Amino acid sequence: xxxxxxxxxxxxxxxxxxxxxxxxxxxxxxxxxxxxxxxxxxxxxxxxxxxxxxxxxxxxxxxxxxxxxxxxxxxxxxxxxxxxxxxxxxxxxxxxxxxxxxxxxxxxxxxxxxxxxxxxxxxxxxxxxxxxxxxxxxxxxxxxxxxxxxxxxxxxxxxxxxxxxxxxxxxxxxxxxxxxxxxxxxxxxxxxxxxxxxxxxxxxxxxxxxxxxxxxxxxxxxxxxxxxxxxxxxxxxxxxxxxxxxxxxxxxxxxxxxxxxxxxxxxxxxxxxxxxxxxxxxxxxxxxxxxxxxxxxxxxxxxxxxxxxxxxxxxxxxxxxxxxxxxxxxxxxxxxxxxxxxxxxxxxxxxxxxxxxxxxxxxxxxxxxxxxxxxxxxxxxxxxxxxxxxxxxxxxxxxxxxxxxxxxxxxxxxxxxxxxxxxxxxxxxxxxxxxxxxxxxxxxxxxxxxxxxxxxxxxxxxxxxxxxxxxxxxxxxxxxxxxxxxxxxxxxxxxxx
Length: 497
What we know:
43% of the residues lie in helices and 17% in strands. It is an alpha+beta fold. The strands form six sheets. It has a five-stranded antiparallel beta sheet, with no helix packed on it. It has a three-stranded antiparallel beta sheet with strand order 2-13-12, with no helix packed on it.
């Protein structure tokens, strides 16, 4: 916090008395300055506390979004996370496969007679196309002195207008070919892709949809841009469906990616008949549970660090004046140490840790976690009890009865406190209780405190500056008197030569 009112900094004083007025004013107003600094430190501690609580909430929210939401990238609420299937496919280059919900152990035969294609216009070769055509402007390529074609028809504004699948595009003469391609390709309504091949020196306009019903409608009556690009709008090539045989049944799809019996297929090339097998692969489920547990353990360790770390009174909030003489790294280290212990023995954090620890000892209607190879680690003083996995035992449980493991994780509790839900319900309940309280109470109370400190700091700073102003006026008067005496003394001395 500033110790001198900025309005008084440039005062020229002390010339006649020789007094270091700034130092004297600082010393005489130090008690008031201490009040301001104390409030500043208290406010900063509240801000740091709010930051620490918010960071914990963010950790919990991220965990829930990732693992305990059905939409999470690593959701443990989906049955497929526990009933994963492996596929032995000898023909990945022609057909790639991925198991999903509903896949069952079995043996299959498959052949691909035809890939799905999109409706398209294949442009003719542009013999005069420069190698850097995509960076050239439309006027450079098609204007009065165009490199490819001169005097291509423009619209009323001197630009180029085309309509694709009902979506109108307008381009200026100064736009580059890359601008045209990006604008068309990124438009969802047009749903097409314009590409250029340096090998064939030609453009292709393709529908993003595949299948025999895909088509592209074009209207460029206002200009001749597509025709100038070598695209004959009267010569559209039709799309076609994918045709394949699965277990002796002839099938068709409009896309090259589709799902049957819980297996997602992606066709890459036509191929003769081949066989593939699906079988249970619990190692994937094991990896998913390991990731869940490792992330949860990371949160437990973070909470425990906040809960057990004591405040080191040697490190306190520094004022701006106190930061002088510190290097940037020294300040970072000091501030990091100053932030430690702000949540020491916080009851709400303690409750979360206790709730998570109880999960390890409580049984569900499907048995205890220990039965499937999940238990608490060995107790160490000062260290939290975390979840540990016996991989061999958990893998055996997944292979023997994946539904049991699934239920032990995802079983919904009748209420958040009945203790009968699965692991996820209990973790969610612990996190939700903490986040609900901190958002409605802790963070709100902290914000109120910060606002009060801001008001008090402003009030005490005003008093500080008023006190300093009075002192400066007092020493300015003394300065004026001393200047008068010095003038009289000089006059007297001048009589004596």
